């Protein structure tokens, strides 16, 4: 179970990362939606796992390549925002959140419209 402090840190990082990605979408590409769905920070506050939902999904590789290339810039931007509240800016690890895709796939399969019927 996460502590109240850790939950607040996760919410702070999620809010600021969402704002950073909203401003970066013009550099990544137009007609794209990047959502920070979840942030999980270790108890020692050294590492934060950031989960991104990317729409349309065919841009996932492009976005993740951009994130890898600009990892230091993104962490620096986060540091500028949370530097007053936290002494150390956690190391960021980015992951693609596919839960919405999986839910849609299951929903289509249950309705009988999917490619793979569930049996």
Automatic annotation (TrEMBL):
One of its GO terms (cellular component) is cytosol. Keywords: Cytoplasm, Ribosome biogenesis. The keyword Amino-acid biosynthesis does not apply. It is found in: Cytoplasm. The keyword Cytoplasm applies. This is Ribosome-binding factor A. It comes from Profundicola chukchiensis. One of several proteins that assist in the late maturation steps of the functional core of the 30S ribosomal subunit. Associates with free 30S ribosomal subunits (but not with 30S subunits that are part of 70S ribosomes or polysomes). Required for efficient processing of 16S rRNA. May interact with the 5'-terminal helix region of 16S rRNA. SUPFAM superfamilies: Ribosome-binding factor A, RbfA (SSF89919). Belongs to the RbfA family. It comes from the Bacteria. One of its GO terms (biological process) is maturation of SSU-rRNA.
